[in-house]
Structure formats: structure tokens, C-alpha cells
Amino acid sequence: MKQFVPDTRKLYRLPFSKNDNPNGWIEITTKCNLKCPGCYRGCNREDNQGEHSTLEEIKDTIDQMRQLRNCQIISISGGEPLMHPELGQIIQYIRQSGMIPFVHTNGRLLTKDLLNDMKSNGIGGLIIRIDSLSGDRKSNEEKLNAIRQRYIDLLSGYSGIHLTYLCVVNKDNIKEIETIVNWSVKHANSLDFLTFIPMRQIQFDDDEKADTSKNIEIEDLCEEIARIVPDIQYASYLGGTVSNTSIKWLQAPWIVLNGKIIGFAGSKFVEFFQMSHHLFKGKYAYKFGKDRSYLNVIQIFLLACFFQSFRKIASTFLSECIRDPRILFKRAVLQLLCFIVPPDFVNGKANICDGCPDAILYKGELVPSCALEEIKKYGGLIDKI
Ligand code: SF4
């Protein structure tokens, strides 16, 4: 199975660090309207009452994040952020502080009114979790494409809102990711990122035992994707803190034209993009482009002069144009496939993402949000010896 996992020497290692990272992570509430198995914050637990942080506390965290993190975006997470009564003011404060607010949500409370409010306050992105493992879904991934479509319809007419669909995967639904990937590629004009996260059970008490029987690993995801997109080419990754050969984040930016993948933006392109973004804007980028990442024929041919990966894209674009000259006036779009692997153990040691983009502030320190409960309880990550 190893052969499906890319050789990291051919990938660009994203240069993110604690203090220079495109993403800042804040959690504004521990209230949630769902009980998803494996919730990192334990919102699914019977004893979870949940509470909202106050606007003052949140503003203070945003100020600290801006100082410590040099981030392009702030991810507003929870709990369910849409339940926070001052979400609009939080979004506005992030914008006024020079960063782009992204909201993580399960989407159930998303309405046109709420979208109007978030848009008028400056929301830059929505990251919506939709999968058959979450809270109340009693469906399969194929049927959930109708819900994926519903959010796209709801968002049509709002420009400048970057959209990510996030899907948690285990042995129950890994064979169904084909329908999600194929649907997402067809909707690349509306969907910017597609992220898969292997599910992990969090152990909150010493006497609890996490169920690992349905866990999948990066190898399983890579094998499955190779079946769906046989010529997949990954571009960038984040390694692990313990094993220098492990892959914790893995990304494949693919270029889609007319609902079909016509090639992959390679590692050199991503490296050039991140380096020049840092050089000219002083920070790494979380997303490509200002709005949706469209590429017209001229841009593709210009990129082909510098990047080998774009030569294949340009030649496919050209053959499509010969087949149907109207394509010359169409734009291709860059869509990102991303895998994020939660903490695992290497020789008994907890292995997390090096340069964790989802670090949260806890007692003035940046710590991985996935490990916050363990850090609160034990003061650090617990190894399994
Ligand atoms: S270390 Fe944990 S919180 Fe940070 S990016 Fe990885 S999975 Fe997410």
C-alpha cells in the first residue's frame, strides 16, 4: 500500500511554523447543536453543557493571535460558531484587524439571513463539515451530495466567500469518497477546497478506551484516491513532529476545466506561490487567489513558460479548444484536495503536525487544538509506551 503515498522528496514541505503560519485558530463556544462522535472538544459528551466566550475574551484572543501568528486568516471554530450571538461582531473585528475570517460549521443553522449578516461583516470563508459520520446524518455520501448542493445554491450570489467541504472518514465511509470527489470536481467553480480527515476517538478519561477499530490512515486515503484519480500528483505536505518521514497534511491542487481534472499544479508552483506571497505580503497564504482561483488561457500559457506541471495543463487545454473552440473563452479553476491526519503514535510517541496550522491559544501558548483537552488535563501530549 506504501506505493500510493508520495515520496516526500518530490513534494514541497510547507514552511509553516508556530509564529509564521497562514492560519490562526480560535474557538468561540463549546455549545453545539450536534453530538458528533470523536469531537475534539467533547461536545458530544453527555456532561457537556457548553458556554460561549464573551466578546471581550474573543477580541483579546484575536489581538494575541495577530501578534503571535502573522496569519492571513482566522478560523472561527467551536463548538458550533453559528450559535454564538455575537458572531457578526467577531467576524467584523477580525476583518478590522487585517485578517480574513473563516467560519467552521456543521451548517445546520446556516440561513440566508445569517449569511447576509456574516457577509456584511466581512466573512471570507466557510468550512462546512458534511459527511455520513457526523451527528445526525442517517445517510450515505451519495445522498449527502444533495446537501452539498444545497449549500452551494445558498451561497450563489455571494461573491468572495471561499468554500471548503470537510469530510471525516473512517472504514464505514472510505469506499464512498469516490462520490464526494467526483461531485466536488464537477462543482469546482463553486467549491475551493475538499478536505478529508481520518476520524479519531478522543479519550477524555483514564478509564475510557478509544475505539480504534474503524480508524484509517493516510495510506488508505492515498490508495483510495489513486483508484478515483489514477494520475493524482500531490504538491505539498506537512510532516510530523516525531517521525520525519510521516505525512500529516497532504495537498493536491488540481486544475479543473468543464468539470474535468486537466492537470495538477506541481510542487514548484506551490513553492513559488508561497515564497512570493511571503516576500510581497509578509505572510504565508492559506488560500490561492483573492476570490475563487480561476485561470484563463493566457494565465495558463504564461505559467507553462515557468512550470513544467502547467505545460501538460496547457496542452490539455489546447486539445480541448481544438475539439470545441468555445473553450478558449472559458476559465479553468484551481481546486485543492487536502488530507489532514490527526495525532497518531510513532514508537509510542504522539506524532502531530509540524507547523500545526490549527494551533489555539491556551494560557498564552500556542498548542494544537486537537490536543487541547489532553494538554488541559495532563499538561502535555501523552505518549503510549
Ligand atoms: S496538530 Fe492537530 S490541530 Fe494541528 S493541524 Fe494537526 S490535527 Fe489539526
Architecture overview:
The protein has 385 residues and is α/β, with parallel strands linked by helices. The protein has one domain: TIM Barrel. Helix content is 31%, strand content 21%. The protein is built from 10 helices and 16 strands. The chain has helices at residues 55-69, 87-96, 112-121, 141-155, 177-186, 218-228, 267-281, 297-306, 308-323, 372-378, and strands at residues 12-13, 23-27, 73-77, 100-105, 125-129, 162-169, 193-198, 236-239, 247-257, 260-264, 294-295, 332-340, 344-346, 349-351, 359-362, 365-368. Strands 1, 2, 3, 4, 5, 6, 7, 8, 9, 10, 11 and 12 form a 12-stranded mixed beta sheet that branches. Strand 4, helix 3 and strand 5 form a beta-alpha-beta unit. Helix 1 (55-69) runs parallel beside helix 2 (87-96), helix 2 runs parallel beside helix 3 (112-121) and helix 8 runs antiparallel to helix 9.
